[in-house]
Write a structure and sequence with these properties.
Elements (H helix, E strand, L loop, with lengths): L2 H9 L2 H5 L22 H15 L13 E2 L16 H11 L3 E2 L13 H20 L6 H13 L1 H24 L5 E16 L4 E2 L5 E2 L10 E12 L6 E9 L29 E13 L2 E12 L1 H4 L23 H4 L4 E10 L3 E9 L11 H4 L2 E12 L2 E12 L15 H4 L7 E15 L3 E14 L10 E14 L7 E12 L7 E10 L4 E11 L9 E11 L1
Antiparallel strand pairs: 1-2, 3-6, 3-20, 4-5, 6-7, 7-8, 8-9, 9-10, 10-11, 11-12, 12-13, 13-14, 14-15, 15-16, 16-17, 17-18, 18-19, 19-20
Helix pairs in contact: 3-5, 3-7
Length: about 550
């Protein structure tokens, strides 16, 4: 074994510590009169550039980038024992030159593999320490200087390359600083292209008075091409909070809803949002964490577009998102509790560790900005409720939600559950003020971690007419819904998911028959930012039991940037 290789072996342990943080202050002193270390000016310039990059953490060497902790004795490193083969070399570097730091947990992790790049950066750190010692009149062992000279020669190529990399990084950082949009705001965009068609029968409608409007029983739907664009401007003032401003446009005028040829809202797409590609401010809310000795608190304040599913946890991790989750609107989450009057208001979540959390919210509907009687923040449509959630193991969650809602005669047109069910269930008493006590239980678990996820929910709502209509008979109804889905993860590609789901669409006791829906889809990542999701879903007894089954086929492409 050559002497050079032995010297490399001796100083190898310094790399992991010295390459991720600037060298600490030296504390060791030896006999004076030791010759100084000579480095030619060109090499010195390269080393200076490397040192600047290290101190500003601009070199990413691929190792742990967390805050390091300076150690003054090798005994402070918990995973280094006196019997380790490199113990003496490490002790010399720590106690004589002070150019070794440890991880925050006081470990050194000396068995980790290192690269020549990392070694060169660590070598440079110790060079800088020795130079400071010499300049301060503190002697350095000649033996160590000779070793470093040989190492500098051996790693001359890597040191020169590091200098070039630093120059390039400095230029790029300077360009970004001069041309950045904002120091506090990031743009996150999502664009959806969707091709869809339906076939089967046109759904008939059961009216509030019990009469039935028959459909033609012939599929007249044409293949459609829809789009939705969302630009999220996410601003952070502390690094942990977020102010979201979303611009949205879409062209879903009558795609598979009650006003279209299908004759039912049960066929609506999950991302059915936006009309005539008009640009609107779809979201405008602020979220901030507050740390306390008892647990973490997160607060939401929304001026527009703050929804119940923004504050409450849906426990449906792979299908809840409108752009990458379920294809159908009814399969995203528990519609009984997560759809209701919302948009303006506040929410708060108190989380104790990783196991238990309690969330509360008060959200007003579309009339929150209207000062007239029967509107406003507290006298119009609203939803208020609480959620209690538990995480039993790393990949399992269950929560219970209660929401009390009130919708005015004008707002009930948007439906008790966002128009995902039949007209009779969405407006069981017609266009009159309606209150509802909503209960939901939902859970999700990766029964095979990283392979198979199962999610389910059940919901019940007790709805009642208000005002003059409350004195009329038949002014109360119960509404039920349930669902079960499973997702096979990373099937054929990392990030892919094959999902199946189905259950009962929200159904009022006043309804004639029960409606069910099932869905199958495969989400495939073409690249990190492009997802293609082909799939189909079917609705049985759409609106009521007199209707034929309706099928919807979809090919959705999602671009994210």
């Amino acid at each position: 074994m050559s002497k050079l290789f032995k010297n490399l072996v001796k100083v190898t342990p310094l790399v992991l510590g010295a390459s991720v943080a600037a060298a600490g202050s030296a504390v060791a002193q030896t006999m004076p009169g030791t010759p100084q270390l000579k480095i030619d000016p060109a090499a010195q310039q390269q080393l200076d550039r490397i040192q600047r990059a290290q101190s500003s953490q601009q070199i990413n060497t691929g190792v742990y980038q967390g805050s390091m902790s300076q150690v003054t004795s090798v005994n402070q490193l918990r995973d280094v024992s006196p019997t380790a083969w490199a113990y003496e070399a490490l002790r010399s570097l720590v106690e004589r030159y002070g150019c070794i730091v440890g991880y925050p947990d006081r470990t050194f992790r000396g068995d980790r593999a290192t690269t020549r790049w990392e070694f060169a950066a660590g070598l440079n750190a110790c060079l800088n320490v020795m130079e400071r010692l010499i300049q301060d009149g503190i002697a350095v062992l000649r033996e160590d200087i000779d070793k470093l000279k040989r190492l500098v020669k051996e790693f001359e190529t890597e040191l020169a390359a590091l200098g070039a990399r630093v120059d390039n990084l400095e230029q790029r950082v300077s360009f970004l600083e001069n041309n950045q949009f904002s120091t506090t705001t990031k743009l996150r965009g999502e664009v959806i292209f969707s091709v869809a068609d339906s076939w089967g029968g046109e759904a008939s409608i059961t009216n509030t008075n019990g009469t039935v409007t028959d459909g033609s029983n012939q599929d007249q739907t044409q293949t459609v091409f829809n789009n939705r664009v969302r630009l999220n401007f996410e601003t952070s003032f502390t690094g942990k909070d977020m102010l979201r401003t979303r611009l949205q446009a879409g062209n879903f005028n009558s795609t598979f809803n009650q006003n279209g040829p299908a004759g039912t809202n049960m066929t609506r797409l999950a991302y059915d949002d936006g009309r005539d590609n008009d640009v609107t401010i779809d979201d405008l809310f602020y979220r901030a964490p507050i740390g306390t000795p008892f647990g973490n608190i997160t607060v939401w304040v929304g001026a527009n577009g703050l929804n119940l599913d923004d504050v409450f946890l849906t426990a449906n991790p792979f299908l809840a998102d409108s752009g990458t989750g379920a294809l159908s609107r009814g399969q995203r989450y528990n519609n009984i509790v997560f759809r209701g009057p919302s948009g303006t208001g506040a929410g708060v979540r108190f989380k104790i560790g990783d196991v238990f959390q309690v969330t509360g919210a008060y959200l007003a509907g579309s009339g929150a900005s209207n000062p007239s009687e029967g509107n406003g923040l507290f006298n119009g449509s609203f939803s208020t409720g609480a959620q209690v959630g538990f995480s039993f193991i790393k990949f399992a969650d269950i929560n219970f939600v209660y929401v009390h809602s009130y919708q005015t005669a004008a707002d009930i047109r948007s439906g008790l559950f966002g128009n995902v069910s039949s007209p009779l269930t969405e407006r069981p008493f017609g266009n009159v003020g309606t209150t509802a006590n909503r209960f939901g239980l939902q859970g999700s678990a990766q029964v095979i971690p990283g392979v198979l996820n199962i999610a389910a929910w059940g919901g019940y709502a007790d709805a009642s007419a208000t005002g003059v209509n409350a004195a009329i008979g038949d002014n109360n109804t119960g509404i039920w819904s349930w669902n079960l889905n499973l997702s096979v993860l990373d099937l054929f590609a990392e990030g892919a998911a094959l999902s199946f789901g189905g259950g009962q669409v929200p159904r009022s006791d006043k309804e004639d028959g029960t409606s069910y829906m099932v869905e199958a889809q495969y989400k495939f990542p073409v690249t990190k930012n492009i997802l293609i999701t082909p799939g189909a879903y079917a609705i049985f007894n759409a609106n009521n039991r007199n209707n034929d089954t309706i099928f919807v086929g979809v090919l959705r492409t999602t671009f994210r940037f």
